[in-house]
Amino acid sequence: MSAPLLAVERITKAFGDLRAVDGLSFDVRRGEVFGFLGPNGAGKTTTLRMIMDITRPDSGTVTFEGRPGLDRRRVGYLPEERGLFEDAGVLDTLAYLGVLRGMSSTDARAAGRRWLERLALADRARSRVNQLSKGNQQKVQIAGAILHEPDLAVLDEPFSGLDPLNQELVVRLVGELRAAGHAVLLSAHQLGLVEGLCDRFLLIARGRPVLQGTLREIRRDAARGADQVLVATLRPAAPAGNGADGAATLERMWPGQSRRVRTLPDGALELELSLPHDADVGPLLGELAERFRIERVTMRELSLHEIYVRAVGGEADEGQAGAGAPARAEGTHV
Amino acid sequence: MSEPRRMEWWPVTVWELRRMIQRVDFVVSVLLVPLLAVGTGLLMGWLANRSQREIVSVAVVRPDGASLPELERFRFVVPPPDTRNAEALTAAVRAKTWDGALILPADWLSGGEAQLILRASTPGWKSRLADHLRGIARRERAAAEGVTAARLEHYDAPVAMGERIANPERRGTRGDRVVGMMLLLLLTVSLFTSVSYMIVGISAEKAARVTEVVVSAIRPQSWMDGKIVAYTIIALLLFALWGASAVVAAMAFHLPLPTSVNPATVIVGLVFAVLGAAFWAAGFAALMATLKDFQSASKLQGNFFMLPFLPLALVGPLIDNPEAGWVIATAMIPLFSPSMFPMLVSLGAVNAWQIGLAILLLIAATWVMRRFAGYAFRVGMLMYGKDVTLPELIRWSKSA
Predict the structure, then answer these.
(1) Neighbouring residues of B283: CB distance < 8 A, sequence distance ≥ 6
(2) Which ipTM score applies to this complex?
(3) Is residue A325 pLDDT above 50, yes or no?
(4) What CATH code is assigned to A6-221+308-330?
(5) pLDDT tens digits, residue range B51-93?
């Protein structure tokens, strides 16, 4: 395990009575993508701004390579509140952002051209920024954040505003950064995209850590003993049986076991039943077979989406219920 | 902070200058001002020339039937006897037979009211005609009392008054005064133009949300410093370009240029121009740092936008009594010193130490302004969609 490139130690930030970030600690290492997740208003952007020295923490420290503060030239930042000089040229803008981070003008223009080529925007180099679509502007902003090949790239919602193809492009870019030994601190809501991309995760809610670790670790912690899911597509066995009766039957079976039941468009029922990783599914399937015709059965692990909902779902509810209530921290190993 | 110090403001300055030069409206306005100045000069010259050649015809009805003594650019006509009444003269003036008609009653020398019949508006020549009448009345009244014309001329002879200057080394020439006034006007216009572009530029950047992107790369103070240097250069470029245009235009129109100018007047003027441009750029950077967008400018901070013109209001008192204590004290204030000190120097009203003190105060104020701008930008840039309040402004001032 390499030494942390970025270390955040118990940082706190309050705006009036609201504690936006409350004692958050984590580190990011070279050659890893660190997923920084949480619901809206959880304090992610405030944390990233403190890391970038845009706002100062009330307490706690941010160190870069073990030293306090940040060398802006070695960090790339894609802020959530982002924009470009709308009447400036695309390549000029990239070159300017590169020069601001310490590149020579020649190197910055050359790097800008390479990135525009990479992002299929080479023919728009001389266009004004406001002549680009929103998605293309977003790609230019991403290029501007990593043009100077920073040791650490801090990307706040890099996928927002992009179509699926361009989202995949950004996923590939982030993967390439990791492969080249750069560290990436990534905040995003597209959990399906980041699940396979991030090496480690930190889930926060209401400014506090909820889960932290690898996907396996946070899955274990969030699962609370039920870290795999049985997914079965069923039809009532009796000819007269209907979907409503079947769903009610499924809700009554195996009391205390977390599940989700929904009716599919063709009338079939889909059951998602959370189980311990060592659960014997044979008897369960037998019980199901007595009441239903089983069309399809699969086993899978908890997805990041499910982990997220389990971990912070209650937090979001609490957050809406009252700002002063303490954050729930069960299930965390931080 | 482990971050090494470097001239990170310089790319901002280059970027701002490049963007400004690429702005069509900026280039047009820069070139338009000399063209407008020349055009206005030509128009005013033509109007003055035409006015000089114009002869005003006035019908005169006096009790004795005589006309008035000659007056330059006037032609006095005695109308035919049957038209020497108000109605007929009014009709004739309306018909543009004459530009005006003057009826003097029999007692006009002893308080009787003369009547001047005009077409519609009161013309500028009326005052010249009134002066002419006053002179005639004076002479005729004097004659009636037995005072001869020679005696009257003796009474009116001016009193000779020479000047003995206590500090002849400080006395400025007419050329110095012209240069002082030129510097004042040029600096005011250049400053106002450059800060206007700064206001538009910063508010557009705030609206486009580029702030956080840039400030992630360099310190807010560096960003503000880069802008301050850029807009100082822009103000000085305008100052030089428009100043040169004014000289060229004056030469082209054969206007009298100052022949003898004290180099100190020019040097002090240029020093204050450079420092003044920096001060106002820093001041408006600080002002814009506290605004969320251009519309906010109409609120609290909008009151500051006309400040560059304020020194013009003090020109009258300054010329009237340049050595008055309050004038010099007011001129020491950095808000006024860039515009007022060159004029005070041109009038020989200030000492070297006063100039030095004013320069020091101006430098100190510029430094404070740039620090405030950097701090306000750092704190205020994340206040998206929120106006800064007066208490916040005061708190930031203390923190900066």
Answers:
(1) B304, B307, B369
(2) 0.75
(3) no
(4) 3.40.50.300
(5) 778 899 999 999 888 999 999 999 999 999 999 999 999 999 9
What pLDDT does residue B300 have? 54
**With contacts defined as CB-CB under 8 Å, which chain B residues touch A134?**
none
In chain B, residues with a C-beta closer than 8 Å to the C-beta of A52 are 216
Whether residues A84 and B210 touch (CB distance < 8 A) is answered with yes
Measured CA to CA, the distance from residue A89 to residue A95 in angstroms comes to 10
**Which residue on chain B is closest to A69 by alpha carbon?**
B1
Q: Does A64 touch chain B (CB under 8 A)?
A: yes
Q: Where are the alpha helices (DSSP H) in A105-242?
A: 105-118, 134-146, 164-179, 191-195, 215-223
CB contact under 8 Å between B3 and A71, yes or no, is: yes
Say yes or no to pLDDT of A320 above 50.
no
Ranges of each domain in chain A: 6-221+308-330, 228-301
Q: How many residues can be counted in chain A?
A: 334
Backbone angles phi, psi at B56, to 5 degrees: -95, 125
Domains and their CATH numbers in chain B: 9-41+172-399 (no CATH), 56-156 (3.40.190.10)
**What three-state secondary structure class fits B18?**
helix
Q: Which of B200, B212, B375 to mutate to test the interface with A (most CBs of A within 10 A)?
A: B212
Q: Which CATH number is associated with domain A228-301?
A: 3.30.70.3100
- CB–CB contact A141 B204 (8 Å): no
Contacts of A156 in chain B (CB under 8 A): none
User: Looking at the complex, does the CB of residue B91 fall below 8 Å from at least one CB of chain A?
Assistant: no
Smallest Cα distance from A82 to chain B, Å: 5
How close B376 comes to chain A (CA, Å)? 12
Please report, for residues B19, B25, B200, B284, the alpha-carbon distance to residue B197 in angstroms, rounded to integers and kept in the order given: 11, 10, 5, 11
Q: Report pLDDT digits (tens) over A10-57.
A: 999 998 888 999 999 999 999 999 999 988 888 999 999 999 988 889
pTM tops 0.90: no
Any A CB within 8 A of B216 CB: yes
Residues 35-54 of A with CB under 8 A from B: 49, 52-54
Query: Would strands A269-275 and A228-236 be described as parallel, antiparallel, or unpaired?
Result: antiparallel
Mean pLDDT over each residue of chain A, to the nearest integer? 85
In tens, the pLDDT along B117-159 reads 999 889 989 999 999 999 999 999 999 999 998 999 999 888 9
